Amino acid sequence: MSNRDYANRRPASKGRKKSTGGRRQPAPAPRRFPFVLSLVTLGLVGGFGYFLWSINDSADKVETQPEVQAAKPKVVKKDPNALPPKPKEEWTYQEELENKQVEVDIPENTTPTRPYQMQCGSFRQESQANEMKAVIAFQGLEAQVRKVSGSNGTWYKVVLGPYERKRLAEKHRHILQRGGLNGCQIWFWEGS
Fold this sequence. Notes:
Layout: H1 35-64, H2 93-98, E1 116-123, H3 126-138, E2 144-150, E3 153-163, H4 166-178, E4 185-188
Antiparallel strand pairs: 1-3, 1-4, 2-3
């Protein structure tokens, strides 16, 4: 087996092919305009002509109807330097608004609102709760550590509040989230 050089190989010649046998290929038949297409075109042109004729006929009928002209009022020549009379005021809203009494019903808040608190952690050891209180203090907020005794032992809760409105508690929670504390929850105030 010999090594062949495919990279430097010359492409095959693209010249005319030699004819074999003297047979000629029949020339393609000239294209003829289809008979059906010409009938459709003729029908569309005829339909368009009929449409234009019907529009013209209806326009003639409209013009043949007698026109009724309204009587023109007589124009009275006036002095060109004279001003027209001052129009009479038709609006009465100014007098109505000056004498209008507005009644506003303000509902009385009979139910006392419960303040909100935000709890950021609950720990078994007081030192961990104080660490979180320090982290909150670095954010510019003041937290409290509460000792709570329950059925499963003593817990130290880190809480902020009380807040009159939940909106202020949400604002402080966003401040803490920017500082890296994401676990704070807002609840109703439990007291003390």
